[in-house]
Design goal:
Layout (H helix, E strand, L loop, with lengths): L12 H19 L1 H25 L3 E14 L18 H6 L10 E15 L5 E4 L1 H4 L2 E7 L5 E3 L1 E6 L4 E5 L21 E6 L7 E12 L10 E4 L11 E3 L5 E8 L9 E5 H12 L7 E2 L2 E5 L2 H7 L7 E6 L4 H5 L6 E5 L2 E2 L3 H9 L6 E8 L2 E8 L1 E2 L3 H5 L4 H7 L1 E5 L2 H7 L7 E6 L4 H4 L7 E5 L2 E2 L3 H11 L4 E8 L2 E8 L3
Antiparallel strand pairs: 1-2, 1-4, 2-3, 3-7, 4-5, 6-7, 8-9, 8-11, 9-10, 10-13, 11-12, 12-13, 14-21, 15-16, 16-17, 17-18, 17-19, 19-20, 22-23, 23-24, 24-25, 24-26, 26-27
Length: 494
């Protein structure tokens, strides 16, 4: 065998790899044996800690089953495998390809059905109060709770809040184990947490992970969002269950996951402080009353911050202040920038909105505003927030359900499609086949031009007029259907 002189020998990459493997396999265990023993001991201690927390908290976690009434909208051709751009039963083929006179699309029908759902919850008092997710029990005909010892109880839905996805139910039992509620504001990113629940009906399932992020507010699930994000495995059926810290206290209510097939390491929980803020009202079965400041708000951009003399974008700009509002009475003015609310710095409009909404009407708060290159402290007494429909100009779901149909803005494409070029109004998109509107001739594709004699040009105007009309128990609509215009008088259902 010919051996190259050492100074001229080339070192192959394979030699490097083999040498590295040898060192790792044969030498590393000798040098780090003591460290491994310490690491294993640490892991064992952590495992025992998780086991202790699970043993302590699991008895207060319950399974929940509910029969919810679901209203579905669907066309005559159910489960059509193509999207709306290819619907041979929705448009006449000649109309689609040769643009002949428009006709109605196939009406959509509303169908009510009872659907069983299952999830989780947790007991918060020995007399049977249980916190869970609103989306599990809202509009439920029947709710059943199963305890960890397999006892089952019918449950009463005491209070619900769709705007935070929190609900309170109660069972008739005493001396029950319950969980303590922590202060979720003190929770830090990176902390260990445990999720307990009944994913896929597998009772008392426990998973562990860390807090991945806090203050997630653009998830699009609820009106007020401040979600805790965690990589603790959360699956279908975990909704309503507790997210628990290492002290065995609840820091959040598991509510949603990213993805449609199960856990991918991104789960969301409602901070328990949001539930604690409305718990007294939930227990009374009252509609949740929220504080209201009465301002338009927007986030600061770097350009806006520089224009107003701020060194950063941490603050909320006030473009407009409502007349006679709590904000105006407190001395807040347009162009003010709110940098602190009730002793806490606020950085975004969503954050300020949530802070105000979590307080009850009548609460006095300190507000620090940035004005004319200096800070000023003001005191405001929060008013009662009006219904969201009045704030946004949108008729609520109950109002539209009473009418029996829904609408959307008339776009140029829709006007061309239905033959309403040059006209204004709102287009009916779906109709309940059992409603008075359907019997009166309202159908998908109908154009509503007036509400009680007042022209409407978009959905916002339509909804505002409908809300006003509801005070009179009925509403007169001027509608156009194909080439004909006629009036329809509808009565709001009880």
């Amino acid at each position: 065998m010919h051996v190259l002189p050492r100074q001229n020998r080339k070192i192959s990459p394979y030699h490097v790899i083999l040498t590295t493997v040898f060192l790792l396999v044969f030498l590393s265990p000798l040098s780090v044996l003591g460290e491994d023993k310490n690491s294993i001991a640490t892991l064992k201690q952590m495992g025992k800690a998780f086991a202790g927390i699970a043993e302590k908290t699991s008895p207060a976690v319950v399974g929940l089953k509910a029969d919810r009434v679901i209203t579905k909208e669907y066309p005559y051709m159910r489960d059509w495998p193509f999207d709306d751009s290819f619907d041979p039963f929705g448009d006449d083929l000649f109309e689609r390809f040769f643009r002949r006179s428009p006709r109605e699309r196939t009406p959509q029908r509303k169908h009510k059905q009872t659907r069983p759902v299952q999830g989780s919850g947790f007991i918060i008092s020995s007399d049977g109060y249980i916190l869970t997710s609103n989306h599990l029990v809202e509009d439920a005909e029947k709710v059943e709770v199963e305890l960890s010892d397999e006892r089952k109880f019918p449950a009463e839905v005491v209070g619900t809040d769709p705007e935070t996805d929190v609900a309170l139910v109660k069972i008739d039992s005493k001396n029950l184990p319950y969980l303590e509620l922590s202060d979720s504001d003190k929770l830090e990113v990176g902390e260990w947490v445990l999720a307990i629940g009944n994913p896929f009906g597998l009772n008392q399932t426990i998973t562990a992970g860390i807090v991945s992020a806090k203050g997630r507010s653009n998830v699009g699930l609820t009106t007020y969002e401040d979600f805790i994000q965690t990589d603790a495995a959360i699956n279908f059926g975990n909704s309503g269950g507790p997210l628990i810290n290492l002290d065995g206290e609840v820091v959040g209510i598991n509510t949603a996951i990213v993805g449609s097939t199960g856990n991918i390491g991104i789960g969301f929980a409602v901070p328990i402080n949001m539930a604690k803020a409305i718990l007294p009202q939930l227990k009374k079965g009252e509609e949740i009353e929220r504080g209201f400041l009465g301002v338009d708000i927007q986030d600061l951009t770097p350009e806006l911050a520089e224009y107003f003399g701020l060194k950063n974008t941490k603050g909320v700009l006030i473009p407009e202040v409502q007349s006679e509002s709590a904000a105006e009475k407190a001395g807040i003015k347009p162009n003010d920038i709110i940098v602190e609310f009730n002793g806490k710095g606020v950085e975004t409009a969503k954050e300020l909105q949530k802070c105000v909404a979590m307080l009850e009407p009548g609460t006095n708060v300190k507000i620090v505003v940035f004005r004319d290159a200096k800070q000023e402290t003001l005191t405001a007494e929060l008013a009662k927030r009006p219904p969201l429909s009045e704030i946004t100009g949108k008729a609520g779901p109950k109002t539209l359900e009473e009418l029996g149909f829904s609408v959307q803005d008339l776009t140029a494409d829709l006007a061309e499609r239905y033959g309403y070029e040059g006209q204004s109004g709102v287009l009916v998109t779906s109709v309940d086949s059992d409603s008075g509107a359907a019997r009166a001739g309202i159908a998908p594709g109908v154009l509503i031009k007036e509400v009680n004699g007042k022209e409407v040009t978009n959905s916002r105007e339509f909804n505002e007029q409908i809300l006003d009309a509801k005070k009179k128990d009925n509403v007169l609509l001027k509608v156009r259907k194909e080439r004909y215009t006629f009036f329809v008088l509808l009565t709001f259902s009880d």
